[in-house]
Write a structure and sequence with these properties.
By secondary structure, the chain is mainly alpha-helical. It has one helix and no strands. The radius of gyration is 48 Å and the shape is rod-shaped. The mean pLDDT is about 90.
Length: about 110
């Protein structure tokens, strides 16, 4: 009977040791799992921040493209305006030259007739 009690005692002691080991492993596994969850949350937060930054950059890019397009349009309008002003100026200068030539011709005719 004594050996039976010793066997039972040693079996109980072995089971207690195994139980403690399993508790430690479970706690370690739980800690690792919690760390993994925290890391995933951090990664997700970083991804959301990057996504928001990319979204903002895209908005800024769209605004810049819109401004660029407007500036190109304005430049085109200014070029057309300048071209028209040059044409008008040349037309005016041409008329003035014709008048001057005509006046010169008239004065030459008067000079030659006198």
């Amino acid at each position: 009977m004594r050996t039976d009690n010793l066997t039972k005692d040693s079996t109980i002691a072995d089971l207690k040791v195994k139980n403690e080991m399993l508790k430690k492993e479970l706690k370690e596994s739980k800690d690792i799992h919690e760390d993994n969850i925290l890391n995933e949350k951090k990664s997700l937060k970083q991804l959301k921040e990057k996504d928001k930054a990319i979204h903002n950059m895209n908005k800024d890019l769209e605004k810049a493209e819109e401004i660029h397009g407007t500036k190109i349009k304005e430049i085109g309008e200014l070029k057309a305006e300048l071209k028209q002003e040059k044409k008008d100026k040349l037309r005016y200068q041409k008329k003035e030259l014709k008048k001057e030539i005509s006046n010169n011709n008239k004065s030459k005719k008067k000079d030659s007739s006198t």
